[in-house]
Structure formats: structure tokens, C-alpha cells
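Input record (one chain):
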Amino acid sequence: MSDEKLRVLKMVEDKKISAEEAARLLAAMDAPAGGEANGKAHWLKVRVFAKDSDKAKVRVTVPLSLLKIAGRLGGKFSVMMPDEARKQMEEKGIRLDAESFEDIERLFDQFAVNGQYKMVDVEDDESGERVEVYVE
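The corresponding structure, as predicted from the sequence alone:
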């Protein structure tokens, strides 16, 4: 068994994540890299390209299930947040409750129904570098 999978199981043992969250994370680790099983997004990808190059010089691929779990954990820790801080965040439209993270989860799942969905494509006019952020 891989170190990553053992770490997930340890998080369950330490009650940091639920068994359901662990199952999702383990499934994401076993999913083929680029697969779109069930028509849902599985990966958040960030690519940085040098000027006039189609080959990425930086590649970051994160399983969406990991982001979902991190979001849920963040929501659990929000109960420790001072009331004033929570109120200020809510006034700016930032909510850290379970419902908000479920909305984000549904949004990610809808992004890649037809394959890859590019969320950000930015190019620096001076350096010519380009950054893409997408889900698939």
C-alpha cells in the first residue's frame, strides 16, 4: 500500500476525516489521470508556459477530492473562528459552512461534464508567460 493511502487511513483513525471522505480520496488516487468517469471533474490542473512555447514549464495536478476534503476540514475548523471574524467574512460573501462546500463540489462536477473546462487563461504582456487553470 502506498504512503499516500496510509496517510489517508491514518487521518480516518485520528478522526480528521470521515470514512466517506477517505473513500473519495482513495478513489481519486486510483482514478486514471485524465479520466472523466461518471462525467464528473476529477482534477484541478495548473500549467505555466514560457513565451511562445506549447510545452508547460510548470505543471500542477491536484485531485479535486483532495480540495473537497480540505474544504470540509476548513468548514469544521470554522467553529473555532471568532464570531467577529466570521461575521466580517460573511459580509463579504465568504461562508465556511458545509452547504457552501457542497455548492463548490457541485460546481466542480458540472465544469467537466463535456471534458475539460478552462477556468483561467492569463498571459503576461511583458514576459509572454501564460498560465492556464482548468478542471477535467
